[in-house]
UniProtKB/TrEMBL annotation:
Residues 416-429 have a biased composition (Basic residues). It comes from Conger conger (Conger eel). This is WD repeat-containing protein 89. InterPro entries: WD40/YVTN_repeat-like_dom_sf (IPR015943), WD40_repeat_CS (IPR019775), WD40_repeat_dom_sf (IPR036322), WD40_rpt (IPR001680), WDR89 (IPR039328). Pfam families: WD40. Keywords: Repeat, WD repeat. Gene3D superfamilies: YVTN repeat-like/Quinoprotein amine dehydrogenase (2.130.10.10). WD repeats lie at residues 112-147, 209-251, 361-393. Residues 400-429 are annotated as: Disordered.
Length: 429
């Protein structure tokens, strides 16, 4: 049962409920997490796997690159690699299009057009990998059939005409979609839909309107619990919800304050019990949500400007953080940083801070906006403001070298990075 409290245009409230079929969630295979019965052999396997991963990262080099002729930024990307092969990389671009590439060759597989505003992200469905979702500032979420490149959206989800989305995600069982809006007058909204609704209905399942006071820049569902959701905002807050509870107030489990505009949120740790937050002023914060029911503080690590917290080789620098990813197979938290010239640095983030794993050069010539590590094929994918999609593999020699000059131009969209708002009115639990 989902319960949501709505706010109407006259500022009154009412509560509605949605009754759906019972959902049984089976966690995805986690072959690296050992049980107590595994004993020493399991711990040894983990140690070897971690060493192998570090070896892979240390040997990363450019394998392939693709640079479209049109000077568009790559804003976000996601990788899907089925067990049978035939993997895809989907990327959203500053020209409002969504493109598909073969994850092995980077060859263009298709393009989807339909959004009239900046595309804020892309996500593959978890249980129906033939579906790709995109969200946009035009106030819509679109579902695309990747088997039919160039076709129209098979589903379109929207809410109030005043809503402009700057983040979205889909639950691990593909049932619930959630989008975060830019600030609308005094409010910011988390909007929910049932993804199984027919195309013609497109009705909103519910809205949260009281937890954030500025643009909601990040929406991230828990990778294993479909009811658990985290959101981050330019108001400096990262909120954690349990959608199985009643009203928005009851659903709000924890509020963590980063004291600055939130740029990225990542679930991490054993059973994804931690949250990493990166801010637009390059702060780094790590919280342990297992402490929510205790008197212990949630904060494990908090660095207002983490760019100088890790040693870099020679005269290397760090201008910004791209994002973070939890590598479940070896239980490591990756953080990527970069420079405006295109150099990249890959870090391991632990309770003690950042440790450099690998510096990557020769791939990009401008700011990198997004990255994805694909453990299935052992490849790293990056995309940025030079319009390049780059594939990195251990020990690779670049097969096809394209132009690497910066493609910034007057035609590229001026994209909103988010204000560095601060909010101290709410306490960390």
């Amino acid at each position: 049962m989902f319960h949501f409290r709505f706010r109407t245009r006259n500022n009154s409230h009412y509560t509605t409920s949605f009754q759906g079929p019972q959902i049984v969630v089976t966690p995805r295979c986690n072959t690296c997490v050992t049980s107590e019965s595994a004993g020493y052999s399991g711990r040894l396997w983990m140690s070897v796997a971690m060493e192998n991963l570090e070896d892979k990262f240390a040997a990363l080099s450019v394998a392939r690159r693709l640079q479209p002729g049109e000077p568009t930024y790559l804003l976000d990307l996601v990788v899907h690699t089925p067990g049978s092969g035939g993997g895809l990389v989907a990327a959203c671009c500053s020209n409002r299009s969504v493109v598909l590439h073969d994850s092995h060759t980077l060859s263009l597989q298709g393009e989807f057009k339909g959004h009239t505003g900046t595309v804020c992200g892309v996500r593959f469905a978890h249980t129906s990998p033939g579906l790709l979702f995109s969200g946009s500032a035009d106030g819509t979420l679109c579902a695309w059939d990747v088997r039919c490149p160039g076709s129209q959206a098979v589903q379109v989800f929207q809410s109030s005409p005043s809503h402009s989305f700057c983040s979205f995600d889909i639950s691990c069982n593909d049932v619930v979609l959630c989008a975060g809006t830019e600030q609308v007058e005094e409010d910011s909204f988390l909007v929910f839909w049932d993804s199984r609704m027919a195309k013609e209905s497109g009705g909103v399942l519910g809205v949260y309107s009281e937890s954030h006071s500025d643009d909601i820049t990040q929406v991230r569902f828990h990778p294993q619990d479909p009811d658990r959701l985290a959101s981050g905002s330019t108001d400096g807050l990262v909120n954690v919800y349990d959608l199985g509870h009643g009203s928005e107030e009851e659903a709000l489990l924890a509020t963590c304050n980063s004291s600055s505009s939130v740029s990225a949120v990542c679930w991490a740790g054993k059973d994804y019990g931690r949250l990493l937050c990166l801010s637009h002023d390059e702060g780094l914060h790590l919280w342990d949500l297992a402490q929510m029911e205790t008197e212990e503080p949630l904060t494990i690590l908090s660095v207002p400007d983490a760019r100088g917290s890790a040693s870099l080789p020679g005269d290397s620098t760090l201008d910004y953080f791209v994002g973070a990813a939890w590598v479940e197979q070896v239980e490591r938290l990756l953080v990527m940083g970069g420079t405006v010239r295109g150099e990249l640095h890959l870090f391991d983030c632990s309770d003690q801070g950042l440790e450099l794993l690998k510096s990557l050069q020769g791939g990009h010539s401008a700011t990198v906006r997004c990255f994805q590590w694909d453990p299935a094929v052992g490849a790293l994918f990056t995309g940025g403001e030079d319009a390049q999609l780059v594939q990195w593999k251990p020990g690779a020699e670049e097969l096809e070298s394209g132009k690497r000059h910066t493609l910034k131009s007057a035609s590229a969209l001026k994209l909103k990075a988010g204000r560095h708002g601060k909010h101290t009115g709410k306490r960390e639990k």
